[in-house]
Amino acid sequence: MEEKKMFGAIAVVAVILVAAFCGVTLMKDDKDAYEAKVTGNVPVFGNANNDDYIDSHDIDQLNAIIDDGSWDKTAYPYADANQDGKIDSADVDIVNKIISGQNCNLYYVDIYDDVVKVSYPVSHSRVGVSYWQQAELATLMGIWDNVVLASTATTSSNSHRYDTSNIEKSFSGSKITSELILECRCDFIIASQGKSDVVQAAIDADSNITPYYVDVSKSSTYVSTVLTLGVLLNENEEAQAYADFVNGVKEKISSGMEKVQEKAKTVVTLMYANQSTRANIIVECEGTGAADMIGLIADVYDSSTKSTSDYRMNVEADWFIQNCGTAFDFIIIEQEGTDTKKVDDTYYTPSMYNERFEEAITYYSSTQAYASGMILGTTYSYNSFGGYANLLYLAYLLYPDVFSEEDGWNALQEYFDNFTTAKINVKTQGGWYYTGTSYSAYNERLAQ
Q: Quick one: pLDDT at residue 318?
């Protein structure tokens, strides 16, 4: 793979922002007072001070290294913008071009920890996405209108979230092919790491295609992934807006969790429409995006017997009865597909979600969690970039005396308003959480 043109970590913002949840404190007119907060979020060479931006402070840092005559590679690992092994005026020139959006060669560290060279800014006039998470990433980056190739999980199952008139070709599941990439004349592909062979085959036929590989199993990298992509595409404003949103949610979570005496013991399961016909239940363990994200607010059940490929485990129904109240207190059900069904050209309604949830939880009716109102219903979205939008409401369900229901709704509404193309009222459109009245133990617990 000659010069893999991949992507993976953070944003360049030429305009200096002062925001409550920014990764660094910026003082534009007081250079001496400025101190970068090293985050490691933007592994783009030229991000000399290793913060969340490529801006004039990186120029200052490069000039300081040049004036000093020595370069501490441990402290400033991304200072060598042109990757020639030294720090000089040529690196300053590259960073100035990045800041101003001028064409240049750009180097970054991808999800495989390889140094990748791309032509900056990366062309993205015809975009292909390998699955619904990658479609979500394209949307929050503000480039959805450029997507011409997408999975049917986007064009059908998630069609209510997008205007799909721009999609020229689609494919089932995540089965994107080299032939479709070439047929759609894609110049940019956002794909999971598992699709690298398929994408590379297309690149071998057309070197103008640039790939960006995304690992959605690691929720801790979501902000870094977005910010890095923002730099590569020169779409920094959108990327930073998402980072600020996530940092704001995490700040509220952190502040609230300081008031929680003990994290709730939880198990995170997937619930399919035909769950009653299944012998086993799928449990999300540490290593999945969902378990790791929910781990910010709960002690998530983990097991050494989980799959080494997807970090999930299959358990028999009796396992819940035996372990509920000892290994975990809460059962969190992620119900697949509940926010994607259209009814009379609208969204899956809350009443539809409630009905499905009430039917599903009878599967767990003999557990202590059921009797205590500690079975929680939520949507299947935590394994992707939009998961943070749901986290505050889930925190409310776990700790109603600490977190606010309204803050939960507001976070979800903010995400849909600012980072999707769907304009909806999340309280009336979509199956996000259980809001019914039939599960009395659930409502009684929240009302206490």
A: 80
337, pLDDT greater than 90: no
Verdict on whether the full-model pTM lies above 0.85: yes
Conformational region of residue 195, where left means phi above 0, alpha means psi within -120 to 50, and beta covers everything else? alpha
How many CB atoms sit inside 10 A of residue 418's CB?
Answer: 13
Q: How far apart are CA 233 and CA 236, in angstroms?
A: 8
Q: Is residue 356 part of a domain?
A: yes
- For 17-27, the pLDDT digits (tens) are 333 333 333 33
Instruction: Answer with the residue of higher pLDDT: 411 or 355.
Output: 411
DSSP, collapsed to helix, strand or coil, labels residue 315 as strand
Give the total number of structural domains in the chain.
Answer: 3
Instruction: Identify whether 212 is part of a domain.
Output: no
- Cα-flanking dihedrals φ and ψ of residue 107, to 5°? -120, 140
Task: Give the per-residue pLDDT at 280.
Answer: 75
Structure tokens that stand for 112 in this block? 């495989």
Query: Residue 297 domain-assigned?
Result: yes
- 127-129, strands of its sheet edge to edge: 169-171, 147-151, 127-129, 188-192, 210-214
